[in-house]
Structure formats: structure tokens, C-alpha cells
Design goal:
Distance between the termini: 49 Å
Number of helices: 15
Helix content: 55-70%
Radius of gyration: 25 Å
Organism: Vermiconidia calcicola
Keywords: Transferase
Mean pLDDT: 86
Order of helices and strands: EHHHEEHEEHHEHHHHHHHHH
Strand content: 5-15%
Strand order of the largest sheet: 3-1-4-5
GO biological process, one term: phospholipid biosynthetic process
Family: Belongs to the CDP-alcohol phosphatidyltransferase class-I family.
Number of strands: 6
Structural class: alpha+beta
Protein name: CDP-alcohol phosphatidyltransferase
Amino acid sequence: MSTSGSTIYILYNANASLLGKLNYVCRKITAPSDSSPCAACDLTHGGLHLDESAAWTKTKSRIHADVKQLHRDELTPDIREYIKANSIKYPVVLGKSPQPQSPLKVLLDSSTLSKISTDHSAFLSLLSNRAEEERIPLTIDNPQRVKDDIFRPAVQFIPQAVTPGHLTFGAFVAGLAACLCAASARPFLSSWAVYLWLLNRVLDCLDGAVARARDQTSDCGGFMDLLSDFIIYSLIPISVSYGLVQRGMVAEPATNLWLPVSLLEASFHLNNFVLFYLAAVSSQKGSEELTSVTMKPAPIEGFESGVIFTLMLAFPRTLQNLSWGMALGVGFGITTRVWQITDVFSVIERKAGLVKES
């Protein structure tokens, strides 16, 4: 894997010797349930495990840098001197640029690590943000980059006259056509719905790849892309259910079909409200804790939604079961995030209260 040339140091609050490991085990066992003597150990090893966790191995592979994991008795003299001179508390994540004589920088301190030690997505997000702030070159793989790698060969065949905006509009039109076909009373037209939906997905991926390849990304383009996706996502279950009724393929009362579809649509709106409110408050307060909640994975995300919508259009008779299942998955994600958000808000309010008192 190519690297940026930068070095990331993850420093544990433990020694590598046998006595050091025994000492850490004792501290870990006797520590309160809501704290840990070494959040870095929790991040990379999942607690009291000798081997690195599979999750950390996958996370580390996404970091394009030389990642060094060091115990306190493994530190080089310059790192030890930097820690001592700046009174830095273990565990900590440091970074260093590839340029000669570049200084060490603190990227994630012990308090931040304790909040994200079980959330690798939040760790990568905060690590990337802090590296950018400290001007340390760092590239982290993400699903968007994977999609760009897949569609990059096709980008060169897109004429310069065709802009990312044109592709976004084409994706929107293809999505609307898929919904109209799915709602049609004619079986021949309904069979075309899945093909038009797949065309929508290809164009939706291609517009972003073209924008990034040509350095034409914009907030307006991102907004229109997201808006068109939301419109199509909302229309697909409604269109499929309407088409089933039109073609007389509903053997039971139509209300039994509309109920799961209605609940699914409601779950979409609730989920969007939670995410957008969280993003707005996070941007306003600049809270790393809120960012970590936003980055937590949910049972139903973009890829899962695409698969389920494809199944709805390809096999309309499965709509009822798919709607129940998807609504349940989205609902579970909403409940989990709301639970986490209330905890984070409590922490932020307590911190604000302490600041006012001081």
C-alpha cells in the first residue's frame, strides 16, 4: 500500500514487558466500567487481548501512513523527550510529516481517545481532521474513494461538454422513469423499472467521480445530488405499491400493503431529521463527541438501501416484507443514535456548566 510518507504514532499507557502487561491487566480489571487505563489498547486490541482485533487490522489498512504502535518502554529518545517536555498524558496519538526535521504533533489526546476507542469510524474521521489542521499529509481510504476507483476508467469517456450537473439530472430522470414504470398498470413497463433504477445508480456514482476527477465539486452540486436521491428513495416504495394495486397483484386488503410502506416512509423522515439536526448542532458547537455519533454505522445505510430498493423493483411481490424489514432496520438505527445523542448532550451540558462555574 502506498503511503503519504507521514508517520502516525499510537502510544499506549502500558509497557511491553511481562511485568508491564501484568500491571495493565490489574489496572484494567480494577478500573471502573466507564473508564479504561489505556483507550489506545481498547482501540487496537479490543481490551485484554494479546493480538490486534480484526476491526483494527481493517482500520489500520485504510490509513496511508507508517503507523507505529509503541508502548512506553519502546519509545525513541526524541518521542520520550517530546512527551516529557509537553507534559502529555498517555495514551496519545502523535503525527509527523515526512519533511526532514518536522516536529511531532498531538493528533488525538487521551481524553479524545477515551471517547472513540470503540468507534473506528469516528477515530478515522477525527484523525483525518486533526492531521489536516496540523498540516500533516494523510490519506484515509473511504467508500467514496472505492467508488471513484471503480468508475475512474469510465470518466475519460465522458465528453467535457457533459458536466457533473448533467449527470445528476440524468440520474434523476432515470430514477423518475423507474418510479413511473413501477407504478404502471402494464407489466411490460413495470419490468423496465429495475433497469432504469440501475441506470440511476450508475449515473449517480458517475457524477461524483467526474466532479472529483475534474476538480468541479461544489456545495450546490452536492445538494442537488442529495435532493434527487431523497426524492427517488421516497418515491420507490410508493410507486411499487401503487403498481401492485393497479395490476391487481394484491390478494389481501390494500391497507395491509400501505401500512408497512407508510411506516417505512415515516422512518426515512425521522432518520433524516436526526442526522441533519445532529449535523447542524455539531457544526455549530464544533463537538467531536457529536461527530463520533454521526459517524457510527447503522444497520441500513446507502449500500443496504440500494440493494433493498433493487429487490423491490425486481420482485414487487416482496414489497410488504421488505418494507417491514427496512423500517425495522432504520428504526433500530434511529433509536441507537437518539440514545447516544442524549448521552452526548448531557456530557456537553455538564462541561458547559463547569466552564461557567469556573
